[in-house]
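Support reply, case 0932

Customer input (verbatim):
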Amino acid sequence: MLLSLRKILYRHLVCFIIGYSFFIILVLTWFTLDYCLKPKVLWDSYGIIYVLENNSNETIKDIKIKFQGGEYTLDFIPAISKKYFIVNYFGESKMKVSFVDVSNHQHEDEIEEYIEPGYKGTFEFFIDKNFKLTWKNNTEPFPVISF
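Our regenerated output:
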């Protein structure tokens, strides 16, 4: 009698563990799918990836990228190097980029490109040997998927 009671309790315990494990897997799968099927939310949490490439033979300093809702600053970028960063926008915006060269001459350019929240991709800035700024916009609105 005691042996059969142990077997019954053991079977119930095994069934409970299997059932609970299945429930945990089901809940985790649901949360994972729910999160992954909302790519706009996922991308918005990261923003646009920016690349600032200094192709001059000198270090540039006091780099500022101004946009609606804030500004991104870097102390310096060494000669022939790149910096990567992410900016999260709070509204539609154009940008102004400024930096100081080795002779303490201030350079400032207004970027004639339009960026807003929900865009994905990269935006690259290039500073050439004469400290001229050019850019390449590889961004586009992120497609919204609704179910």
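We compared this against your earlier run and they match. Two observations from our side: Confidence is low (pLDDT under 50) at residues 38-45. Residues 94 and 114 are 5 Å apart (CA to CA). Please reopen the case if you see a mismatch on your end.
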